[in-house]
Structure formats: structure tokens, C-alpha cells
Description:
With 81 residues, this protein is an all-beta fold. It has one domain (4-74). 0% of the residues lie in helices and 62% in strands. It has no helices and 6 strands. Strand 3 (39-50) and strand 4 (55-60) form a beta hairpin. The two termini are 28 Å apart.
Amino acid sequence: MTPERRLVRSFPVKDEEGYVHTLEEHVEIHDETCMDGKPREREGIREITTRDGEPVNRIKKGKYQIAATGETLTSDDPQAP
């Protein structure tokens, strides 16, 4: 079964020129059945993307890089991963 992709949070970032953008953090949710037959959810891989779905690498908390372009983004949002 294909995992569900769920939005965890979105947060503001700034590019090198000071323009504000939004990144999104998603998590894969896997449906599993326990031995007692009860369904449960298990979190899988977390991924950060632009609003357009472009992959973003997390360098460290508050510092990110768009995978395709190498552009660096920063955030001082306390909720940013």
C-alpha cells in the first residue's frame, strides 16, 4: 500500500536577496495492522519541499538549500526544523 503524504508544517524562509518564501515539511504515514488486528499509523520519512514541490535539503536548523539550484535559504522561525 502506498503511504499517505501528510503536511506537518509550513514555515517562512528568506533567500539570499531577502525575499520571503514558504517551505513545507511533509511526513509519510504508513497504515499498519497490529497482531491484534487493530490498525495503526507509523510515521516514515520526513521531507522538506518548496510550495511547488521542489526538494529542499536541510543543512542545519534554520538553514536549507534547494536541491535543483543550490540556492541557500534561512529561517529564524522557532517552528522551522
